[in-house]
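We append the chain.
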Amino acid sequence: MKDFKNKIALVTGGSSGIGLAVAQGLAKSGAHVWLLARDAEKLGAALEGVESAKTNPSQRFGMVPADVANVGEVRKAIAHICETVGLPDIVVNSAGVAHPGYVQELDLEIFRWMMEVNYFGAVHVTKALLPGMIERGSGYLVNISSIAGFLGVFGYTAYGASKFALRGFSEVLRAEMKPHGIDVSIVYPPDTDTPQLTYENQYKPAETKALGGGAGLMSAYAVAESVLKGMSRKRFVILPGFESKILYRLSGILGNMVYPLMDRMITAAQRESHK
């Protein structure tokens, strides 16, 4: 994808999962790639994999350990990247966490954690970079959401709220940044085979497991391929896989009628889980 050649790309949550797969795809497309995540050890291993995907010896790569929920760490990391390699052309906000459960059983700290990482994490990174992008008159901001970011999924009150917030942020950001020459995309992947999903599966209510039991998992690399294709076409909404496409369109077509349909699915899932 020639659009990414020689571009400076920053990927948060780049140590694993979708973030790592997108970073490798960008490297393969000729971009200079920087990774940002909390765990320095995992980042180091991920960076080796990203560098191995390069197509040109002149490509540059780097990593910065930082917690996107900590605005001070984010500002320091962004400043380091800008001083080292320059202001990023592409930013993929992929850092995210998910902890499902019945709303009455989830601790309030889980709700705060979801918002701090999934929503404010993207806001912190975006705000740190926007002044430079606006002054330059170009940039590309990509926010990784979820099907739970446009459809209320049973068991995901905390996670879904944070991803719905990211949707609202992205929609307004797109409108405000268009006059400045800055593109925005939001990605709604389905369940994806990542370490994050392995963590989630420990806490999913029976109904949530039953609802998702018939759907196949996408690989992180398949999601990344869809993301890069969508970016190359400057699509605002990027829908990897059949499941996300059909659910997004159905939710738009059915409107409020989607809720009775989901209620029936949940009732059937509850019956199944109690067999």
